Amino acid sequence: MRGVIRVLLIVLLVIMASSVGAQDELVVEPIDVPQFALSSVVPQGWTALGNGLFSRAAQPSEEDFTLFVLQSAPLAPATLMSALLPQLRLSEAPEPVETITNDFAEWTRYEITVEGNGITVAVDFAITNVNNVTYLVMLQSAPQERDALYTQAFLPAVDALRPLVAEAEVVPYRVEEVTFTNGDVTL
Q1: CB-based contacts of 30: which residues, under 8 Å, 6+ apart?
Q2: For residue 172, is pLDDT > 70?
Q3: What residues are paired with 186 via a beta bridge?
Q4: CA atoms of 167 and 16, how far apart (whole Å)
Q5: Rounded to whole angstroms, how far apart are CA atoms 127 and 78?
Q6: Please, is 169 exposed, middle or buried when counting C-beta atoms within 10 Å of its C-beta (0-12, 13-18, 19+)?
Q7: Which pLDDT belongs to residue 64?
Q8: d(C-alpha 87, C-alpha 85), whole Å
Q9: Segment 159-187 mean pLDDT
Q10: Three-state DSSP class for residue 74
Q11: How many CA atoms lie within 13 A of 29 on its CB side?
């Protein structure tokens, strides 16, 4: 009987471990955010709250306050940072923790912890400016989830973020300047 119970416990532990792993693995899917003229990726199944905000829960609460932000604005990064500081309960800009470079831009990443109302929140955000537009990717989560969400959601979103290109700007052929001469006339 003891052997059977031991085998059942091992099977139960394996099943529990595999179900936790399945919950921890996020799948990201492409998303266009037209109001901010950008595209990127967000975790599959997360709820769009509008204005480039996405939540894991249908409604953020004290139990699950995980949020994802994809936004852009035609302003300088310092101006965006000034607007973010009060929302993050900061009086001055935090020190950057790293630079992330991809084929779109060079991003400055910040990592902070915000405490208030008995809740501790881990916040990662990255900012870049391309063609006078500042782009923001931000992740807010519980500190114990930060590492997994940073790797599985935040970094893929930074890597995938691109401005939306209006269809009129998409040219399905190569454009090249050429000249030719016809008699005394060069066109």
Answers
A1: 39, 40, 41, 160
A2: no
A3: 181
A4: 48
A5: 10
A6: exposed
A7: 83
A8: 5
A9: 70
A10: coil
A11: 7
Mapping DSSP onto H, E and C, the string for 105-158 reads CEEEEEEEEEEECCEEEEEEEEEEEECCEEEEEEEEECHHHHHHHHHHHHHHHH
Predicted local confidence at residue 21, as pLDDT = 35
Are 54 and 68 a contacting pair, CB within 8 Å?
yes
Strands 119-130 and 53-55: unpaired
**Per-residue pLDDT tens for 80-128?**
999 999 989 999 999 999 999 999 999 999 999 998 888 899 999 999 9
Query: What is the token pair recorded at 122?
Result: 């881990």
Taking alpha carbons only, the member of 167, 172, 159, 171 closest to residue 30 is 159
* Contact predicate 121/61, CB 8 Å: no
Query: Rounded distance, CA 118 to CA 130, Å?
Result: 38
Residue 15 identity: I
And the tokens for 179? 């000249």
| Mean pLDDT within 13-22 | 31
Element (DSSP H or E) covering residue 22: helix 2-24
Of 83, 54, 72, 27, the residue nearest 141 (C-alpha) = 54
Q: What is the pTM of this model?
A: 0.75
